[in-house]
């Protein structure tokens, strides 16, 4: 039995899956249907909501926030009492929310709380309305017949039967969440103590720098290898992938390379475009697992019409493709930077486009829960279910070396963002101002970066990138396949001059792309023309003199050379 199956069995043993006889329309996204007149709550979705709630609670604890725990069920009094004593929240109820005099409160401070946790939301709604009025986040257990007017005010709903067994399980998870964060506080305090007592000045300075750098990190970075492996159970894998939607930001034109349409429609190799590659990958995933992962192409006004023409050829593919035109409340930037998706990407505009087009609600009604946003034309993009298993809101970061091999390695954004679709909905409906005014990482309660292999970052921004992908270094199946004959884990550094910038010039100047399996770097400037069957190795520089046409003959092998004249070959 897998860990996931064991957890689900634990949930079932608490009767968390047994709802009321009536399921409100807004609650149906959490249900499997009904049996014997009783609504059956989807335990997988209960588990996801528990994880989201615990992530939020963990974040509030980390910020040393204050909590208010509310319970009116006398059968659960002892359970809640034990929890609050273990986590250090006493029974001080001298500060009260309006209308809560008959409720059992556990508050760690006489100041207004930063989070309200309610064990029995259906008994009285006064606390929920008051907390919502004061804009205090609410974590609460919700059942199938909860009215929409109450449900919509709960920030982190946990769909479940509020049985004594489930309340015990939920309180136990909250306790563990608190204790983990409190242990981290102790470790930080101990580190600070070691710092103040360090006799060695160098040791003290290094420790300070370590603490300062860790505190400056906007998001924690976790290694890809530490993620949970995908389940071997094909049914579980299918269920997981069925909750995913891929969104490709498709706002960049190929004008820099002399291509008038969307850059994603530029041919990469063997007649395949970038769009072909990502669609083939999703189609293969759908066919292999019997799932339905759709693709949304988020266009701009400049690329929408061209994209509609391009997607016509995919009508027979086993994939649902939805082209959308992104809302734009400000003019699109013009000029050189306007071709870069990272400049065009505005998460506020993206979220509003999904909401205003009705796509957001439609996806949720279809049971979709997660989105993978692909920001760049990154040929290394993989739809990775291992990341999907673990994330709440993740962005992939690849560790890449600098131009000098002795430089310290740096992280670069691969352009892939994993987000919870329900959190996106809540952001645009209840916290729209925050989404508009703050960076993406600040709009989510818990953002994490995953350090993926640098092979995941293979952007196609120019003909220099195209040179690599059209060479013998790569081939194409369902995704990008690297030639195993190359021993260097990094791609060669390619710099083609302005004579190669336009796609038509690039294609005419190469009869065929040279073999670059053993190439470290290539710089080409001036009026240079390449024959066929050429092999490049090591560091190669080819710079034609002004007014001179330099032709590289067929079949030549060039290794560690600087060439400016035919006699140098």
TrEMBL record:
Catalytic reactions of this protein: alpha-D-glucose 1-phosphate + UTP + H(+) = UDP-alpha-D-glucose + diphosphate
A Pfam match: UDPGP
GO annotation (BP), single: UDP-alpha-D-glucose metabolic process
GO CC term (a single one): ribosome
Leader sequence segment: none
Listed CDD domains: RPS2 (cd01425)
Stretch list, region Disordered: 199-219
SUPFAM superfamilies cross-referenced by the UniProt entry: Nucleotide-diphospho-sugar transferases, Ribosomal protein S2
Stretches of the chain forming a coiled coil according to its record: none
Glycoprotein found in the keyword field: no
PANTHER family from the UniProt entry: PTHR43511
UniProt protein name: UTP--glucose-1-phosphate uridylyltransferase
Species name: Rhododendron simsii
């Amino acid at each position: 039995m897998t860990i996931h199956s064991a957890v689900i069995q634990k949930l079932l043993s608490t009767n968390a899956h047994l709802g009321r006889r009536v399921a409100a329309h807004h609650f149906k996204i959490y249900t499997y249907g009904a049996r014997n007149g009783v609504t059956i709550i989807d335990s997988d979705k209960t588990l996801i909501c528990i994880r989201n709630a615990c992530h939020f609670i963990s974040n509030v604890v980390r910020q040393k926030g204050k909590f208010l725990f509310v319970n009116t069920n006398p059968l659960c009094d002892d359970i809640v009492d034990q929890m609050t004593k273990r986590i250090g929240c006493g029974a001080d109820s001298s500060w009260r929310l309006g209308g809560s005099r008959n409720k059992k409160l556990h508050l760690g401070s006489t100041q207004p709380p930063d989070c309200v946790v309610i064990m029995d939301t259906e008994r009285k709604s006064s606390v929920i309305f008051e907390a919502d009025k004061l804009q205090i986040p609410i974590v609460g257990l919700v059942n199938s017949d909860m009215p929409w007017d109450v449900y919509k005010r709960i920030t982190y709903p946990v769909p479940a039967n509020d049985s004594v067994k489930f309340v015990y399980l939920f309180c136990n998870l909250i306790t563990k969440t608190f204790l983990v964060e409190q242990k981290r506080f102790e470790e930080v305090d101990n580190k600070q103590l070691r710092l103040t007592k360090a006799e060695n000045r160098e040791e003290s300075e290094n420790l300070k720098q370590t603490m300062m750098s860790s505190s400056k990190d906007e998001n924690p970075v976790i290694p890809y290898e530490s993620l949970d492996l995908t389940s071997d159970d094909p049914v579980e894998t299918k269920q997981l992938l069925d909750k995913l939607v891929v969104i490709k930001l498709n706002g960049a034109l190929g004008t820099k390379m002399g291509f008038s349409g969307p850059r994603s429609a530029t041919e990469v190799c063997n007649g395949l475009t970038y769009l072909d590659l990502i669609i083939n990958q999703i189609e293969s995933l759908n066919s292999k697992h019997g799932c339905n992962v759709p693709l949304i192409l988020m266009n701009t006004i400049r690329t929408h019409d061209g994209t509609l023409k391009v997607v016509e050829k995919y009508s027979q593919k086993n994939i649902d493709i939805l082209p959308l035109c992104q809302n734009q409340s400000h003019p699109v930037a013009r000029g050189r930077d306007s071709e870069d998706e990272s400049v065009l990407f505005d998460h506020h505009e993206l979220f509003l486009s999904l909401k205003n087009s009705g796509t957001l609600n439609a996806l949720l009604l279809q049971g979709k829960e997660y989105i993978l946003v692909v920001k760049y034309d990154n040929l290394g993009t993989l739809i990775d279910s291992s990341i999907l298993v673990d994330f709440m809101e993740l962005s992939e970061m690849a560790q890449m070396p600098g131009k000098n091999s002795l430089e310290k390695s740096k992280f670069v954004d691969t352009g892939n963002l994993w987000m919870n679709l329900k959190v996106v909905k809540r952001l645009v409906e209840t916290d729209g101002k925050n989404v508009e005014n703050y960076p993406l990482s600040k709009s989510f309660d818990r953002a994490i970066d995953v350090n993926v292999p640098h092979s995941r970052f293979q952007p196609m921004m120019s003909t220099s990138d195209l040179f690599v992908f059209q060479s013998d270094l790569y081939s194409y199946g369902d995704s990008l396949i690297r030639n195993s004959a190359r021993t260097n884990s990094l791609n060669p550094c390619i710099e083609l001059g302005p004579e190669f910038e336009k796609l038509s010039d690039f294609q005419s100047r190469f009869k065929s792309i040279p073999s670059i399996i053993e190439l470290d770097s290539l710089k080409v400037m001036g009026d240079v023309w390449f024959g066929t069957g050429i092999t490049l190795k090591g560091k190669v520089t080819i710079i034609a003199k002004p007014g001179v046409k330099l032709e590289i003959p067929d079949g030549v092998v060039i290794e560690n050379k600087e060439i400016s004249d035919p006699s140098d070959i």
